[in-house]
Write a structure and sequence with these properties.
Blueprint (H helix, E strand, L loop, with lengths): L3 H22 L7 H22 L2
Helix pairs in contact: 1-2
InterPro entries: HLH_DNA-bd_sf (IPR036638), Spo0E-like (IPR018540), Spo0E-like_sf (IPR037208), V_SNARE_CC (IPR042855)
Pfam family, one: SpoOE-like
Organism: Shouchella xiaoxiensis
C-alpha cells in the first residue's frame, strides 16, 4: 500500500501554510512569533512529506 492517500492532503496543507507564510511576511516582521510559528509548521509538514515520499 502506498502513502498516496496521506501525501495528497499533506500537499494541500503545505501549500496553504506556504501561502499564509508569504502573506504574513508582508504584514509582520520576519522575526515575529507568528511568522516563526508558521515557518516551523511548514518545516514540519515538509519533513512529513519527505518521510512519506521516501517510504512508500
Amino acid at each position: 500500500m502506498t502513502n498516496e492517500h496521506l501525501i495528497h492532503p499533506l500537499t494541500r496543507s503545505i501549500e496553504n501554510v506556504r501561502m499564509e507564510l508569504n502573506d504574513s511576511v508582508s504584514v509582520y516582521s520576519l522575526n515575529s512569533e507568528y511568522v516563526l510559528e508558521l515557518s516551523q509548521k511548514l518545516d514540519s509538514l515538509l519533513n512529513q512529506y519527505e518521510n512519506l515520499s521516501n517510504n512508500p
